[in-house]
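--- STAGE predict ---
source: upstream dedup step, 1 unique chain passed
mode: sequence only
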Amino acid sequence: MPDSDKLAIAAHLHVLLRRKTGRVTDTEWMAANAEYALEIVRFARLRAQEDNAPDLAEWADRLDQAVHQAPTPAARKPLLDVATQAVRQRLAPPPPPPPPEVPRYVGGIR
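--- STAGE serialize ---
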């Protein structure tokens, strides 16, 4: 599912939660972070049961499906490893210059 769709679902759920419960959420973080999104889904489903709000449960289900359809991100490298590699590349000596071009004798004998 495209990120724009997840963001749209998160925004709609944000508006519902704000109206029905007074809860303010971060829509961009909800679309980007699966752990946060699943916690908001759990909260929305709980409040949907307590407040008898089927539309809140419906949008929570949509967000849940969007999060579970998203591909799992590739294994991340620790930031320290990435930074260390970048520093090593900057500190590495420059490659040796190419050997000077030897002039070639072109033309006739002088």
